[in-house]
Write a structure and sequence with these properties.
three-stranded antiparallel sheet; about 180 residues; 5 helices
């Protein structure tokens, strides 16, 4: 999912025209990049309010595309990448594995599963496919995109992105005009 935001620049267009072309591009680019970083942080915070994930796991699924000289557009992309159940604090018990997915709930038992380390060093929560030892399948928890969609947070993130870009553009424009 890609979050795109458009703002109304009619109130700042006159001030933008007062700047040189090079400065205008610099102000817009820096404003967009700052808004992308702030939006990415806000999205991570909203996800972490709901689920028990570390920031690095959430950040891996939220990608910020910065504005560059040739393209004055930025984007925050939320990947629908599954997150291994092990990242949700999996603990091996006699009956299976317990995990804490939601922050509001307690630990849940996932019966018949086990924690294993693969030859590659990857640690995960697995379940046997049948009665035989192999094959085994890794289990995954909700992705960052699923968490945001379930809670209806995407609209809040869009509004935040618009406000952030508008505020940052006004702030940087004012600072540039005072010079």
């Amino acid at each position: 999912m890609r979050i795109t935001s458009h703002i109304d620049t009619t109130d700042v267009e006159k001030q933008l025209k007062a700047l040189t072309s090079k400065k205008r591009i610099q102000v817009v680019r820096n404003s967009v990049n700052r808004a992308v970083a702030q939006t990415r942080t806000q999205a991570r915070r909203q996800v972490q309010e709901e689920v028990a994930l570390k920031a690095r796991d959430v950040n891996a699924a939220i990608v910020g595309r910065r504005a560059v000289r040739g393209q004055l557009a930025g984007a925050v992309e939320i990947l629908n990448k599954p997150i291994p159940l092990h990242r949700y604090g999996a603990k091996q018990t006699r009956k299976g594995v317990t995990v804490r997915v939601k922050k509001s709930g307690g630990r849940k038992l996932v019966g018949g599963h086990f924690v294993a380390t693969m030859r590659s060093g990857h640690v995960g929560v697995f379940r046997r496919k049948g009665d035989n030892r192999l094959p085994i399948r890794e289990r995954f928890g909700p992705s960052v995109l699923q968490v945001l969609n379930d809670q209806g947070q995407t609209q809040r993130i869009l509004k935040f992105a618009s406000r952030s870009l508008q505020k940052e553009l006004v702030r940087r424009l004012g600072a540039e005009l005072r010079r």
